[in-house]
Amino acid sequence: MKKTLLIAAAALAAGIISTQAQVYSQNIVGYANLVLSANYNMVANQFNVGSSNGASEVFPSIPDSTFLYRWNGSSYTVNIYDSGGGSTPPNQSWYMSDYNTPTNQPVIPPGQGCFLQLPFSVTNTVVGSVVPNPGATNTANLVAGYNMVGSIIPAGGSLTNSIFNFDAPDSTFVYAWNGSSFTINIYDTGGGSTPPAQSWYMSDYNTPTNAPSLSVGQGVFFQLPGSWSWKQSLP
Question: How far apart, in whole angstroms, are the C-alpha atoms of residue 50 and residue 158?
Answer without folding.
Answer: 29
